[in-house]
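note to self: dont lose this again. the chain is below, predicted strucutre after it. 168 aa total, dont forget to put it in the shared folder this time
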Amino acid sequence: MIIDPCQQVDNLALLMKRISGRQTRYTNKNEKRTGTLWEGRYKSSPIKTEEYLLACCRYVELNPLRAGMVVNPEDYHWSSYMYKVGIKHLDWLDMDPLYNSLGSTKKEREEKYRACIQETIPSGEWELLRQAVQKGQLTGSAQFIEEVAVKVGRRIELRGQGRPVKRK
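---
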């Protein structure tokens, strides 16, 4: 899922908290069960939109294929793919400015988006995006990371996982 929290970054955490709470209550009531639905906290990665938004969209749209859940991106019911390529229409779905810049007409945008999702994925793109999400790191260039560090007033390091192994 790709969400723009706008100027209020806390909106994303609040949204995820509400989704988790409501869905858990709904599922527990209907299935007469207790406990949480998801094992851990949601994972997020701020995106440098001009450079990585379409790559992140491709990553999200193709996740159900990689998981073996569907054969084609349009077969996954919970995806925006079928709306972005013109198979279905939703009035409430906001198209991002980058999607809108793909063409001057709706048809042209749909064709270019379909082509973008279907084109060969550049070497290392999957791993870069997966690592950013799994580690909660930024998805963008070193300059983007520095810009965010200045905004939040903290140094941001892209570190590996956990402590180094003690050697005896």
